[in-house]
Give the backbone structure.
Amino acid sequence: MTDNFKHKGLRKQLVEEIKSKGISDEAVLKAIEKVPRHLFIDDVFLDFAYKDTAFQIGAGQTISQPFTVAYQSTLLEIKKGDKVLEIGTGSGYQTAVLMELGAKVFSIERQKSLFEKTKALLPQLGYTPKLYYGDGYKGLPNYAPFDKILVTAGAPFIPEDLKEQLKVGGKLVIPVGKGSIQIMTVLTKIDKETFETRKLQEFSFVPLLVDKAW
Ligand code: SAH
């Protein structure tokens, strides 16, 4: 679990790379510079940890590309103390970035093995989010409402439960699309029934799965 000068140097380069790709939010860049991404992936990928690419992390799932993590984090406009619901904990990398931004994070993962692995890892790195094993489509009604909700898997549609669990004035960031390509979408809750929708650029996420009988 070491984070040495070499790793820190590589992170600085990564920050320069995502800056050149259009990320300009200072707080987000700082968070990316801080989180030791190499500790979230298997040792065999060590040399690639600070390349701007996604990786397999087991159970057929991926750790998101740093650019994508930075992009989604920017869209959320996190303020210190924001209560954030993340769907798709995965490696926990995005969770850590949100926490560096000052969010209180609740995160749901549907793969038991990933859930267990990340639940053990994050506290070792000093991050203590609330992690849940369950179905992201349903959100966490008992802990709602949330200031922000982030979906880190490709959703075929926008789940009503998540819209409901958002505070008025809050934002839901979700990649929406039925195939392998999704459109990054930002919903802002204007009042109980009204949402403003912004559609941004295309991404390719692993799917938000529905096939389990919860
Ligand atoms: N935020 C993660 C990205 C992981 S990829 C990271 O930074 O590493 C997306 C994750 O969503 C996968 O771990 C996948 O298992 C999970 N997922 C897919 N469908 C889900 C669902 N219905 N509910 C909760 N998690 C889901």
